[in-house]
Write a structure and sequence with these properties.
The complex is a heterodimer of chains A (651) and B (145). With 651 residues, chain A is of the alpha/beta class. Helices cover 29% and strands 24% of the residues of chain A. Chain B has 145 residues and is of the alpha/beta class. Helix content of chain B is 41%, strand content 14%. Chain B is built from 5 helices and 4 strands, in the order βαβαβαβαα. Chain B has helices at 14-23, 45-54, 75-92, 110-127, 136-139; strands at 5-9, 32-36, 58-63, 100-104. In chain B, α3 (75-92) links the parallel β3 (58-63) and β4 (100-104). In chain B, α1 (14-23) packs across α4. Chain B is globular. The model of chain B has no long low-confidence stretch (mean pLDDT 92). Classes of the chains: A alpha/beta (651), B alpha/beta (145). Chains A and B meet through α5, α6, α18 and α19 of A and α1, β2, α2 and α3 of B. The structure holds flavin-adenine dinucleotide. The site of flavin-adenine dinucleotide has 42 residues of chain A, from α7, β19, α12, α13 and α15.
């Protein structure tokens, strides 16, 4: 006979404030095989855990039910407690009477208590039937894959590499750096962005533990925590990386001109190019869509000029296969499409630009060599309107805050003030959120420099009869609609996940939050972990954030990966399936539903029966549900166990 | 008494979605009972039939959004196929096939979880309670052999 101990947690008032805990204990104590039934203010506290351990010894308990919060967060904690008391961790069953009961039925205390009693009884019913499960220790591959080479990916890669582990850094563009490489200066300190990022980029390229794969994409991931098999598509650069010295003569000679993505369409590049002078690696790529040789079969100037014969038009895409223990996703963000806020005239008036475009105009290696000129007019603007919060905090567009727009608006006001001292600058913002370290001070500084701040949101941007632009904005302090005559409008766009992250989401099966960014396991306590064990997220891939937060989170993700690698092993999937050969008819339906090739039909004593390879089984249980003769059982989720729960809930 | 609903969930999406309803304190009727499985592919038709027999008024199958969210590649498609067959079986048995329902609920959709429970509860209320299942012997029908 099993000996079950039941522990009902108050979770302070979270549970006990709604549910009648004493009634639960009284009712559940009557259940068959329940030897001990107690309540306690905080079961997960060390006292609470000790209580369980003591009872296990004193009452010879061999099955434990904890009625508390979600097993998603707390099962590992109580499993450890069982282990410490010498009991198999799989003799634990949790009843979620908080997240799925007290919190969601706050106003129906009686009914909620009735429900909780059934939930706990169902857990007891299952616990009575729990069986021992053996898990194996599987070694963890001593390397990490980092996806995305922005400041988040760069930081994470360096941290892991410095801890002594091998890193593969995969970046889809031809250079690492991400958006930070495009910025001129960074708030609130106004350091030169590439001056602080550049050295880190070089360190990545030269660190012996890092293999840098640029112009590459992750196309397939198999396996599980500790042992991921990854396929990477390394696109053909048409330039031999091993020969190229980065002299860039080819780029000089190339006769074509194409709008530069790096300069956000404001400047031009060649068909063979590095996106910016500090690019890492400093190896150009050929854009085959625009190259004269690839489009018309003529030219080949770059091939002729290259002193080391690094140009290779025949070079083909390569598939690289690697094995890693952990994966860090740092795919970053993109600006929200300004055309989706059509009232501000982006795309209609060349004088309307986005924040990132202004960064390129202000940058000394940008299209205007750092001179802020109105696109299409090539004149310095004398009057500028900066619209913070464009597309953000707006139910029609992005409901959330981009966390950088306010500070960008202030920084951009500073750019203009300092390059065109006489300019009139309006910053239009619903409110200025200067929440970070040194941000409020930065705000005061900009205010004191004569920038005009208007509280509100612009309603429209028009071409005014004088030829300049008119920005319409309601000023609540004057109770008046102002029409600001300006030469340049800067839109501080909201941030959205990088569109290329969608592929990574498919490949890794990551969940996303309602805002589209990758979802963490817990917003406060496990901010870089995902529901896929061994896969971590950081930077703007997780949510919009500034550089300080991005870097802090990247180090945190690196730490989590290092923790896993340093421990050296993970445990095998416990909830695998097994076949009862007596009842198996060898029909093979299980084989057809298994996505992981974990089942095969074999001959045994002249009969055809299904055989499970537990090393491949992921424990989804699909075959158990599909088996027409009920011959397959999934450990910890057996038919008998589930039906016992359903019966108990129905009572 | 509100109609009693059995909710079968997977661990990664819909169970987490139900937790999210909790964390966000989104209220729904206390007559919905969750049984967690690992994947919607494990959500067996038998569980629903037994639940209806034992006195549940409806069964909600849930899983990760199709096509790509399932952590086990295609458990959600299997659940979908199974629910379609189960609905046929129920109508053949003379039971409203809308007593079983299938919904995709992601880990962040706490509001959707609550909304679905509300909707399903209302529908089941309109349907009224399920007549008790009886054994053939209890029906007084002569059995042939
Ligand atoms: C106009 C503007 C100005 C800003 N100014 C400041 C400032 O002054 N100070 C400050 O603190 N913050 C500032 N920020 C915020 C700052 O840009 C971000 O905090 C930072 O760049 C985030 O870094 P990240 O690595 O997470 O993302 P990103 O910089 O977006 O890098 C992501 C990288 O991942 C790559 N990638 C994406 N998908 C894939 C894929 N599938 N495979 C491979 N690679 C992929 C991308 O190509 C990119 O290189 C500003 C933002 C904007 C929009």
């Amino acid at each position: 006979m099993p000996r079950v101990g039941v522990y009902v947690c108050h979770c302070g008032k979270n549970i006990a404030g709604v549910l009648d805990v004493k009634r639960i204990v009284r009712e559940v104590a009557k259940e068959e095989d329940v030897v001990v039934c107690k309540d306690y203010p905080f079961m997960c506290s060390s006292e609470g855990q000790r209580l369980i351990a003591e009872d296990i010894r004193r009452h010879n308990l061999d099955r434990i039910v904890v009625a508390a919060c979600s097993p998603r967060t707390h099962e590992p904690i109580f499993q450890e407690a069982l282990k410490r008391a010498g009991l198999s961790p799989f003799f634990l069953e949790m009843a979620n009477i908080r997240d799925q009961c007290s919190w969601v039925h706050e106003h129906e205390k009686e009914l909620a208590t009735d429900k909780a009693i059934r939930l706990v009884k169902a857990a007891v019913a299952k616990a009575r039937l729990l069986e021992e499960i053996r898990v194996e220790k599987i070694s963890v591959k001593q390397s990490v894959l980092v996806i995305g080479g922005g400041v988040a990916g760069i930081t994470a890669a360096l941290d892991v590499a410095k801890a002594g582990f091998k890193v593969y850094l995969v970046e889809k563009n031809s250079s690492i750096g991400g958006h930070m490489a495009q910025l001129d200066k960074t708030f609130p300190t106004l350091d030169c962005s590439i001056c602080i990022l550049g050295p880190l980029m070089v360190e990545v390229a030269t660190h012996p533990n890092i293999t840098l794969l640029t112009y590459s994409e992750v196309i397939e991931v198999e396996g599980y925590v500790g042992n991921f098999k990854v396929k990477i598509l390394k696109k053909a650069r048409k330039v031999d990386e091993t020969k190229c010295t980065g002299c860039l003569l080819c780029m000089e000679k190339c006769p074509t001109r194409v709008p530069s993505e790096f300069d956000r369409g404001l400047g031009e590049r060649k068909s063979i190019y590095v996106p910016f002078p500090q690019a890492v690696p400093r190896v150009p790529v050929i854009d085959t869509e625009h190259c004269l040789y690839f489009t018309k079969g003529v030219c080949r100037l770059c091939e002729k000029i290259c002193p080391v014969k690094a140009i290779n038009y025949e070079q083909e895409d390569e598939i690289i296969e690697i094995e890693v223990g952990a994966i860090i996703v740092a795919t970053g963000y993109e600006e929200y499409d300004p055309r989706k806020v059509p009232e501000y005239g982006y795309g209609m008036f060349t004088e309307v630009i986005t924040g990132l475009q202004l960064e390129r105009l202000a940058s000394s290696f940008g299209p205007t060599r750092g001179k802020i000129l109105v696109p299409g007019k090539n004149k310095e603007p004398q009057r500028v309107a900066i619209l913070a919060c464009t597309g953000s905090r707006d139910e029609k567009n992005l409901p959330y805050c981009c966390r950088v727009g306010c500070m960008n608006a202030l920084k951009h006001a500073w750019y203009i003030k300092h390059s065109i001292p006489g300019a009139t600058i309006y910053v239009i913002a619903p409110d200025v959120r200067s929440f970070g370290k040194g941000y409020e001070e930065f705000y005061r500084r900009i205010r004191s420099e004569g920038v005009i701040l208007i509280k509100g949101r612009a309603s429209e941007v028009h071409r005014s009869p004088e030829g300049c632009l008119g920005v319409y904005v309601y000023d609540p302090s004057l109770d008046e609609v102002l029409v600001l005559k300006v030469d340049l409008v800067v839109l501080e766009m909201g941030l959205v996940p990088n569109p290329a992250s969608e592929k990574i989401r498919d490949v890794l099966k990551l969940s996303k939050s309602t805002d589209g960014f990758f979802l963490e396991v817990h917003p406060k306590l496990r901010p870089v972990e995902t529901s896929i064990e061994g896969v971590f997220i950081c930077g703007c891939a997780q949510s919009p954030k500034d550089i300080p937060d991005t870097v802090a989170q990247a180090s945190s993700a690196a730490m989590k990966a290092v923790e896993l690698l340093a421990k050296g092993y993970v445990e095998s999937v416990p909830y695998v399936v097994s076949v009862d050969e007596e009842t198996c008819s060898g029909c093979g339906i299980c084989v057809s539903v298994c996505e992981f090739n974990a089942i095969e039909i074999v001959e045994k004593n002249d009969r055809r029966v299904a055989k499970v390879n537990t090393a491949l089984c992921k424990g989804c249980g699909s075959c158990a549900a599909a088996c027409p003769s009920g011959a397959i059982e999934q450990a910890h989720f057996t038919r008998e166990q589930v039906l016992a729960m359903i019966k108990a809930l129905a009572r | 008494m509100k109609p009693k609903i059995l909710v079968l969930t997977c661990t990664y999406c819909s169970y987490a979605g139900a937790d999210m309803a909790g964390v966000s304190k989104i209220q729904y009727p206390p007559s919905a009972y969750i049984v967690r499985l690992i994947c919607s592919g494990r959500e067996e038709a038998l569980f629903a039939l037994e639940a209806l027999r034992e006195g549940f008024d409806g069964v909600l199958f849930t899983g990760c959004h199709i096509p790509y969210d399932c952590h086990f590649i295609s458990g959600n498609f299997k659940a979908r196929a199974r629910v379609a067959l189960l609905k046929k079986l129920l109508s053949q048995l003379g039971i409203e096939d809308s007593r079983v329902r299938l919904e995709w609920i992601s880990a962040s959709e706490g509001d959707k979880f609550a909304k679905v429970v509300f909707e399903f509860t209302r529908e089941l209320e309109e349907m009224g309670s399920l007549p008790k299942f009886r054994k053939i012997s209890e029906l007084g029908v002569e059995e042939h052999d």
